[in-house]
C-alpha cells in the first residue's frame, strides 16, 4: 500500500474514534482552559479533525506529486472525508442548538446524491472531477464544524449569530453545489457507456 493510501486509511480509522469520543459524556462535562464553552471532548474532536484535514491535504499532495492514482484512493479518500464530516455534524447536532436536524438532513442528502452519481459514473468508466462549488462547500462545512466545536457552547449572542450565518451559508452552498453537480453530470444517468 502506497503512502497516500496509508494516510487515507488513517483517516478512515479515525472515524470510529470520533464517534466514541463524541458519545463519552464525561468528556463533555469538563471544560478546557478555564472556559465554560470549550469541552474536553470537543477539544479532542477538534484536534482529530484538524489532523485529518491536514492528512487529507497531504495524501492528495503526495498522490499528485508522485502521480499515484489507485482505485482504493479514488474510492476511500472522498468517502473518508464525507463520513468524518457527517459523523461530526451528527455529534454536533446532539449538543448544539444552532445546528438543526433539517440542516444535517440536507447535508446528508447532498452527499448521498453525489456519491450515487459517482458510483454510477465509475460503473460506466466515466470520470467526474470535483468542481469549485463543491470545494467551497467542503471548506464551509469544515469551517462550520470547527466553529461549532470551538464555540458551540458559548453563551454569546454575537458568536451565535456568526455561527448561524456560517451554517446558513454552508447549507446554501450545499444546495447550490449539489444542484450544479446534478445538472453538469445528468448524462451519467442516461449514458449507456460501459
Radius of gyration: 18 Å
**Would you identify the regions where 5 or more consecutive residues have pLDDT less than 50?**
none
The total beta strand count reads 0
Number of contiguous helices:
8
First-to-last CA distance: 28 Å
The H/E string reads: HHHHHHHH
Anisotropy-based shape: globular
Mean model confidence by pLDDT: 87
Q: Report the β-strand fraction as a percent range.
A: under 5%
Proportion of helical residues: over 70%
**Structural class of the secondary elements?**
mainly alpha
| Major beta sheet summary | none
Structure, explained:
With 194 residues, the protein is mainly alpha-helical. The chain has eight helices and no strands. It has helices at residues 3-23, 25-28, 40-65, 71-95, 101-123, 132-151, 157-184, 187-190. α4 packs antiparallel against α5 (101-123) and α5 (101-123) packs parallel to α7. The protein is globular. It starts with a helix and ends with a helix. The model has no long low-confidence stretch (mean pLDDT 87).
Topology:
Layout: H1 3-23, H2 25-28, H3 40-65, H4 71-95, H5 101-123, H6 132-151, H7 157-184, H8 187-190
Helix pairs in contact: 1-3, 1-4, 3-4, 3-6, 4-5, 4-6, 5-7, 6-7
